[in-house]
Records
---
Amino acid sequence: MTLVTLADVLKPALREGHAVAGLVTLGWEDMRAYVAAAEAEAVPVILQAGPSCRDHTPLPVLGAMFRHLAEGASVPVVAHLDHGYTAEDCRIAIDSGFTSVMFDGSRKPLAENIDETAAIVEMARAAGVSCEGEIGFVGYSGGEGSAGTDPDEAEQFARQTGVDAMAISVGNVHLQQDKQGGLDEDRIRAIEAVTQVPLVIHGGSGVPVAQRRALAHGSAICKFNIGTELRMAFGTALRSAVNSDPDRFDRVQILRETHTPLVAATRTVLQAFKGA
Ligand SMILES: [Zn+2]
């Protein structure tokens, strides 16, 4: 059993100067490949169930899948709820065996975000579960724009909520299909100067790999969420498996062929975050 909390993997990452990947899962095929890749790289991994994942599969099912994979894994595995929008989302995840919950109050006014996040930290802590909060809204490619994190607000948020990890908005954008974006390093430095909490970058797929590597090793950013990049790798592998034989209809046969390419793509992602 190597199921651990978010704090269990982020504290050493902060101390030793590396980062852990928060990998966005959509189902059994990708979560299984992510764990295989983490084992091959001998690094911990955070399996994340976000809104579209739990629209498709109920949280109690996802919790059982994450825990089953963790039980057989040779590396630490975190079962993490990504973008919980209500206390109820977080409560269901905790009841479903998740070891970490993210509460996203970043669209709310500061005082409300702090109050609601603090209450969820308290609920999570009572259950032995970690909590990630978000301060400064991270926008979506082709959708809502971002609101950059104010360092003073980040300091207040970290101090008053007691979160184990703090997601920040520093030029990152969700759902980017290329790596043309870059993070505002001055703003990152200003935030890490005023708080000791491990920092999280959502929308990691849009961050150039060289910058991921540099910040993983030389900043308080300890968690990069990666979704789009690996969903694209999975989609490419799936399309090629479907097209390779028009007569084939058994989906297990087809999906089996996504495993090796997805493990390879995931290993490449994990390598940038690894410790020396
Ligand atoms: Zn996110």
---
Amino acid sequence: MPLLSPSSLYGLARPFLFGFDPEHAHEITLDGLARTQNTPLACAYSSARTDDPVQLAGLTFPNRVGLAAGLDKNARCIDAFAAMGFGFVEVGTVTPKAQPGNPKPRMFRLPQRDALINRLGFNNEGLDAFLANVQKARFRKGGPSAGSTRSPMLLGLNIGKNAATPIERAVDDYLACLDGVYAHADYVTINISSPNTANLRTLQSDEALDALLGAVAERRETLAARHAKRAPLFVKIAPDLDEAQVAVIAATLKRHGMDGVIATNTTLARDAVKGLPHAEEAGGLSGAPVREASNRVVSQLRAALGAGFPIVGVGGILSGADAKAKIAAGADVVQIYTGLIYRGPGLVREAAQALLRDRSKA
Ligand SMILES: Cc1cc2nc3c(=O)[nH]c(=O)nc-3n(C[C@H](O)[C@H](O)[C@H](O)COP(=O)(O)O)c2cc1C
């Protein structure tokens, strides 16, 4: 390993970043990535992308490790994440209008458990600013991170609803976002599982999900004809669901022709962090403590959906072994968020290489 590899540099940067309040550290990092992407300074976090292509939902994923939504809500740093070696990057959640999110503080570290709690509440600059940033990204245009003859990195655009939109009108927000992002997305994620927007998770229940997915599927037909491309639709669900709820969701996804499912978002459960500082903060818990519940939902989805239905596994991946466990539970590809905060960009290659080696053994 070179002396100044991305992981050793992150080892130096992490104590500095962890000296700040978590949201401030996040802003410093994203500002740094936005400023340095597509410049020679990007070598501080760049890593050769592992070549391990997999076909899923009609797309070729260049490898099986993606960035989970929420880290780059405004799509400012797509090229920086492309340079880290991700096979796919999901940005958002975007809402139709800009909104400030919940009052601060609203993000907390639980370092004893490699975990975070957040109640950001979809703070974002809104659809227009998001799309302007997406269109500025150069990763598709043969920039330094674009593989020349290899499959390009894929871009997922994750959509949600504004806090001020009543839940009965949620469908309008999803359709407005779908209209906006469709032409620019390799896939679109319908996020109905953030715990930080009042009542959002009720959209996972039978009738509400049926109505939402019916409307989204119908609009996709119009958009597919208009843009002469069929963008896959993924639905992102919570870990706080029992087996019967997972089975109903699985059947509803299939009935409406959804192309994949992302499991899971953060959890409301606190048993794994009881007694730790910040454990009782309201919001979604991510990182190591959500791993078991996420893996359980992934296996239940696989059992309910059968082989061949795309599952993106996310929740608690902090090592190559965790990524392998997620695939073993039934996921086709994986995503990481909290692991990147605790382990740095070296985790992207570690996970992608672990999955590559795992596959070559199979
Ligand atoms: C600070 C923070 C913000 C997040 N924001 C979003 C979001 O806007 N949209 C979304 O779909 N998921 C969001 N998530 C959930 C992550 O994408 C992921 O599903 C979850 O954190 C579990 O993965 P992890 O354990 O690797 O972090 C967020 C997670 C964190 C920690």
